[in-house]
Design brief:
The complex is a heterodimer of chains A (about 170) and B (about 375). With about 170 residues, chain A is mainly α. Chain A contains 3 helices and 3 strands; from the N terminus they run H-E-E-E-H-H. Chain B contains 14 helices and 9 strands. The radius of gyration of chain B is 23 Å and the shape is elongated. The C terminus of chain B is likely disordered. The chains are: A mainly alpha (about 170), B alpha/beta (about 375). Chains A and B meet through helix 2 of A and helix 4, strand 1 and helix 8 of B.
Chain lengths: ~170, ~375
């Protein structure tokens, strides 16, 4: 198994990377404070947005539900759950999201990548940053929506009052 | 395939039209009705898991999870929206689950029960007796993709690699290669008519039919390969050929053999297997089809073209030895790769230059077959 095969993540996977159900995370130790983390070198990314730490295959331990028997053509197994462990941190991800072993392996790596990021970088992790940004945008949208609503309200009041003034004038002019 | 037929009719007819015909097929087996009060998905999975376990059905929990998820419109139980785990099921859903589970009680493979399965994220239709793609084979495709990405190829007028797949089955290998290599083209061959039809159907479902030619072809028949030359020399030959040792065929699970022994013991005629056994049986040392492919490939491959095979773990040595006994083929075993269970499973064989007695490289058009040496 060469490492190069698993550092490529096809585009559809990145879109699908929400928190999947059925995930069990064993042994999640307390987050280290950012300063004490021992991390592999950060990949070069955009200036304000460093890329997610990539996983080193040699630090991973992968397990499958292996049936007894010869495997390959001689068996027909549908259990394709993947259990992936990041040895340095002890983080474990279990993935049975899809019916394809290959896809479960890639998904497990993607999920583990994020877990490792949070583990080592805590609040500075990309995951947390994205969350905060999303929350910030949400608040901004709410604020704008509220302001728009108030503007409309004021305009309506203005129109209502000008209408009644018009009514009075026309009454006067008779 | 009485279970299959009934299942299809049930799906086509909708609720309320099943009547008594369903019960009669299982007179020798007590039907398991859902216990009143079991209304949600989670409970139903537990219910059927227990039944499967009691009846000795392997992968009891996985089977019931896939069936319940499928009826609820999801591919896996874990990917179901959690709210659906505890929501009551409709009588129609319960009936579907009952029928699909009945098939599982007859050891029908889950992939045939659902009528579909995934391969490297592609959803493929499954239908007996066409061979069901195995998870190991996903890694064969991974390897081919890695190699294609690494080797700078002389890009011809058509772009991507021209690939021959021998024994396409449901089309899993061909279609996943096509979907990942947008410039590639594939010639997919199989000796089974059902495979030809199913590959065609899957190609259309995935809208890849424009880049694949699906051709009935038996690699063991001498001389029938000449018309494949008309597509020009190929960059790659890929195959998951039948590789089970003939002596091991008896040991295969009922999901594959379909209780052949039990039927024979009861004095009945052996019923047809779920999967086409010809897709599995590789002859005495599992080498019959492999050696035919390796004999044919040099005539179809470009210089330095590659062959990628999935094999039995005993084959790397056997194939290496066999290739050494056939220097006329100009093929070298360049790499062996293990599957995710750590078993040597995949071979990369490369053609090392022009074959003796064959014209080197240029194939201007259909040519008469040439015999080496």
């Amino acid at each position: 198994m060469s490492a190069s095969g698993f550092l490529r993540f096809p585009a559809p996977l990145t879109r699908r990377c929400m928190v999947p159900w059925g995930l069990r995370l064993r042994e999640m130790p307390a987050l280290l404070s950012p300063g004490t983390a021992v991390t592999p070198a950060q990949m070069a990314g955009r200036k304000d947005r460093p890329a997610l730490l990539s996983l080193d295959e040699s630090e991973l331990e992968e397990q499958f539900v292996k049936g007894h028997g010869p495997g390959g053509q001689a068996t027909n197994k549908t259990s394709n759950c993947v259990v992936l462990k990041h040895i340095p941190s002890g983080l474990v991800v279990k993935c049975h999201q899809t019916r394809s072993v290959d896809q479960n392996r890639k998904l497990a790596r993607k999920i583990l990548q994020e877990k490792v990021d949070v583990f080592y970088n805590g609040e500075n992790s990309l995951v947390y940053k994205d969350k905060r940004e999303a929350e910030k945008k949400k608040q901004e949208r709410k604020k704008r929506a509220k302001e728009t609503l108030e503007k409309k309200k004021r305009l309506k009041e203005l129109w209502e009052s000008s209408k009644s003034v018009q009514g009075e004038r026309s009454a006067d002019s008779d | 395939m009485e279970c299959w037929g009934r299942m299809l009719r049930a799906f086509l007819s909708g609720p309320g039209r099943r009547g008594g015909a369903w019960g009669s097929a299982y007179s020798s087996w007590r039907p398991h009705r859902p216990v009143p009060g079991l209304l949600n998905a989670t409970e139903l999975v537990s219910h059927w898991t227990a039944i499967f376990e009691k009846e000795g059905i392997p992968e009891a929990q996985e089977s019931s999870e896939y069936i319940v998820a499928h009826v609820l419109g999801a591919k896996t139980f874990q990917s179901l929206r959690p709210v659906l785990w505890t929501q009551p099921l409709t009588p129609w859903q319960l009936q579907c689950i009952q029928e699909l589970s009945s098939c599982r009680l007859q050891r029908m493979p889950v992939q045939y029960i659902l009528g579909e399965w995934d391969f490297r994220g592609l959803s493929l239709k499954m239908a007996p007796p066409v061979f069901i793609p195995r998870p190991e084979t996903e890694e064969l495709v991974e390897w081919v993709l890695e190699e294609v990405a690494q080797r700078p190829r002389a890009v011809g007028a058509q772009g991507g690699p021209l690939i021959l797949e021998v024994g396409c089955g449901s089309g899993a290998i061909s279609l996943s290669l096509l979907s990942q290599l947008p410039q590639s083209q594939v010639i997919a061959v199989d000796k089974g008519e059902a495979s030809i039809c199913l590959t065609r159907e899957n190609a259309q479902r995935l809208r890849l039919q424009d880049r694949i030619w699906i051709v009935p072809f038996d690699v063991t028949l001498e001389g029938s390969w000449a018309h494949l030359l008309s597509w020009g020399p190929m960059d790659l030959v890929v195959s998951n050929p039948p590789y089970v040792f003939h002596q091991d065929m008896e040991q295969l699970a009922p999901e594959i053999l379909r209780c052949r022994k039990a039927e024979a013991q009861r004095g009945k005629l052996p019923c047809p297997s779920y999967e086409d056994l010809a897709a599995l049986d590789g002859g005495e040392k599992g080498m019959d089809i492999i050696t035919h492919i390796l004999t044919l490939a040099p005539r179809l491959l470009k210089d330095s073209g590659s062959i990628f095979l999935e094999v039995d773990p005993r084959h790397p040595e056997l194939v290496g030895g066999w290739l050494q006994s056939r220097p006329d083929l100009s093929l070298d075993l360049v790499a062996v790769r293990k599957d995710f269970c750590g078993r040597p499973r995949f071979l990369h064989i490369r053609r090392s230059g022009p074959q003796h007695g064959c014209p080197a490289h240029a194939w201007p058009g259909p040519q008469p077959a040439r015999v080496p040496g």
